[in-house]
Specification:
With 183 residues, the chain is mostly helical. The protein has 2 domains: 58 residues, no CATH class; 99 residues.
């Protein structure tokens, strides 16, 4: 590689690194300057972000000499988190396989509904994932069957496919039952 190409790739690497590092900021300096801290807190709460996200803003905005209004942020967050901690959001998080946000709802009025439907949604998610794994295994076994030459091997593969097919039928029925638990 010639010297110009190496220098050009080095510049690109530096730009990529800078872009990656700036992606770690919770808020830009210009955003810090005009932030409505009550609205920021509300949006964070309503999206299920922990209240501790204020510390990220404090650090990032502090680099520019700007201090977030913690009181306004917390008031906004308190209102927003109540809109997040609902049975419907618990269900939505669960069916997407995201269980890590349950702790932000502890102590909130909607915690019980959120936690209950989060667990119900997680059961749906796990069932869907098992159906996907079984489908992949069925595809693999069907391919193996098409290449099989020995009768005993073909018989074994067909039995495995029948077992998986029965399992898929059971799982689909289970999934239908689980989905009826949606809020």
């Amino acid at each position: 590689m010639d010297r110009n190409a190496m220098m050009g790739s080095g510049k690109w690497l530096a730009l990529l690194l800078l872009a990656a590092l700036s992606g770690c900021e919770s808020m830009s300096v210009s955003e810090c300057k005009v932030a409505d801290w009550s609205r920021v807190g509300y949006n964070d709460g309503a999206s299920g972000a922990p209240e501790s996200k204020l510390a990220d803003y404090t650090e990032d905005c502090g680099k520019a000499g700007i201090r977030p209004n913690a009181r306004a942020y917390r008031q906004g967050w308190d209102n927003g988190i109540q809109h997040y901690c609902t049975a419907a959001n618990g269900w939505r998080e669960g069916v997407q396989g995201r269980s890590g946000k349950e702790s932000v709802c502890q102590g909130q009025p909607g915690y019980r509904g959120f936690a209950r439907y989060l667990e119900s949604g997680l059961r749906v998610y796990r069932t869907q994932e098992q159906i996907k794994r079984n489908s992949s295994e069925i595809s693999r076994l069907e391919k193996e069957l098409s290449n099989a030459t020995k009768d005993d091997e073909k018989k074994r593969l067909r039995e495995s496919l029948r077992d998986l097919d029965r399992s898929q039928t059971r799982l689909r029925h289970l999934l239908a039952e689980q989905q009826q638990a949606a809020p």
